[in-house]
Amino acid sequence: MARISVDDLTFAYEGSYDNVFDHVSFTVDSRWRLGLVGRNGRGKTTLLRLLQGLMPHQGFIDMPTAGVYFPFEVEDSSLPTLQAMEQMAGDAPQWILRRELNLLQVGEDALYRPFDTLSKGEQTKVQLAALFSREDVYPLIDEPTNHLDLLGREAVGDYLLGKDGFLLVSHDRAFLNRCITHVLSLNRKDITVTKGNYDTFRQEMDRQNQYEFGENERLKKDIQRLNESARRTAQWSRTIEKSKVAGEYSGNSPDRGYIGARSAAMMKRALNVQRRQERAAEEKSKLLKNVEKVGDLKLSPLMHPKKVLVEVRNGTVRYGDRMVCQDVSFALRQGERLALSGKNGSGKSSVLKTICGLSEALAGEISIAGNLVISYVPQSTEDLQGNFREFVQGNGLNETLLKAILRNMDFGREQFDKDLSELSQGQKKKMLLAKSLCEPAHLYVWDEPLNFIDVLSRMQVEELLLAYRPTLLLVEHDRAFLEKVCTGIVEL
Ligand SMILES: Nc1ncnc2c1ncn2[C@@H]1O[C@H](COP(=O)(O)OP(=O)(O)OP(=O)(O)O)[C@@H](O)[C@H]1O
Ligand SMILES: [Mg+2]
Fold this sequence. Notes:
Blueprint: E1 3-11, E2 21-29, E3 33-38, H1 44-51, E4 58-62, E5 66-70, H2 81-88, H3 94-103, H4 120-133, E6 137-142, H5 150-161, E7 166-169, H6 173-179, E8 182-186, E9 191-195, H7 198-250, H8 256-285, E10 308-319, E11 322-333, E12 337-341, H9 348-355, E13 362-368, E14 374-377, H10 388-394, H11 399-408, H12 425-438, E15 443-447, H13 455-468, E16 471-475, H14 479-485, E17 488-491
Parallel strand pairs: 3-7, 3-8, 5-6, 6-7, 12-16, 12-17, 14-15, 15-16
Antiparallel strand pairs: 1-2, 1-4, 8-9, 10-11, 10-13
Helix pairs in contact: 2-4, 3-4, 5-6, 7-8, 11-12
The chain binds adenosine-5'-triphosphate (ATP) and magnesium ion.
């Protein structure tokens, strides 16, 4: 039997008052290539931890085979890659490790270099190869694409397409479409399982939403009509009461039997209307629960008197005696949105950091417009710590504005009470991105702004950039995004 079933699961992190899961149940087949999607902080990583049996919880989790998590915690990353892989792969034979690496297009020579000298993209592939070399385990793969360039994403997508049975968390639309057969989605109010790839799931969700919007309109009209009719009944019965009283004093004798029957009928009608009102309201309250809120984002770009904000000629990036890239030449004019593109480890982040004055790795003829105000989003979120207030004060930000932006990106109110280190990966990156959106600047420099960010917020950022057209220099590997927002690409 290959069923993974979760029954009536409830879970909260210790010391936290919001439940990540609240009485949820679902069943999936462990032989599916299953994508796990949902907005940042919904509990995807938490679910993977629970499926590994790592944390106490209420309810039942039934796994046919043990779950193994990607990324691994590499104990000693200075070991030769082959040894590091053997630790991850349990006792899988070497020929299998080599076969899997080969499928992922990693050269044999990587096996003999220390693991920590491999590029991040190569490290990802090595870990996946080790994971799929193991027998009788269920792979739980958490966001493998973040360090992969475009070609790397395609290679890993094709690799996964050749496998049976795994659970894969990703926010990359093209990547998911390439390799999954089913979608498990953590929605606002429930969990759904859909057959098909990411696009099929999205269409299904849109169809469902549209149906519910229609139903919602119908019920709204019903309720309005019933209110109207309740008001008429009330008015009628008041008139009758009046005519009873008037009858007694005027000496006219009204037909008491007739009035009695009329008010009884009226009473019945009023009750009926009330019942139908309640039913309609209840039906209505069941609709639209899952509709995700996606508001518009705002930005305040500044105008600079110079046309060209940054120009680099014959740039080189070097670490020690290792040449990372050379012949870097580009000019960034106001209003342009340039993406630096290149393989993992080709020096993209170093170029960005040098322009922001945070590094000196890039050498050459570099000219930067005077008094240029830059807003920078770093690639890594590791430096985030302390509470929300400290983050606001430490960076001189407008708290109200920052909160409004984050709320707009689906942050729940309770998230602001947490220590930043307890946020999910995507929530951390959203914190850095929202900080940049708060900062008026001539130039926005964003290093992989979409890493870990959920699909709906990726779309929000696309809309924002097209609406405000800021000057932007960025590194990003999401193909759909680049095609939509960039005015040019610089190959390193
Ligand atoms: N160690 C922790 N302590 C307290 N709360 C935590 C901890 N880790 C995660 N959380 C909270 O639990 C919720 C779910 O987090 P989780 O990391 O599972 O989300 P996710 O769906 O994987 O998000 P992302 O797409 O950003 O990776 C979030 O609200 C997060 O703030
Ligand atoms: Mg996660």
